[in-house]
Amino acid sequence: QVHMAESGGGLVQAGGSLRLSCAASGRTFSGYVMGWFRQAPGKGREFVADISWSDGSTNYADSVKGRFTVSRDNTKNTVNLQMNSLKPEDTAVYYCAATIPNGLRYWGQGTQVTVSS
Description:
- The protein is mainly beta.
- The protein has strands at residues 3-7, 10-13, 18-25, 33-39, 45-52, 58-60, 68-73, 78-83, 92-99, 105-107, 111-116.
- The strands form two sheets. Strands 2, 4, 5, 6, 9, 10 and 11 form a seven-stranded mixed beta sheet that branches.
- A hairpin with a 5-residue loop joins β4 and β5.
């Protein structure tokens, strides 16, 4: 059973930084894509960034490019999201997810990020 657990959310002022971590367990993740998504109040869940577990290639939503950095630590089975220059519109619940090649996705429980103006 795949288990994803996020940590590191909190309250920060605009312009500040936060680092989210996601601990993945339950199997080996070679071939998976590990991603971050977010959901703001009253809105749908949206893609933020992802990283290939195998080769480390990354993708970012336009809204976070240049501010957020996704990384992985294969030895610890963790995926991180470094968020800099945070804006009030980044306020959301952030979820990590592991996607296998057939499209099945495993989700974490989410962590709240609140950016005050």
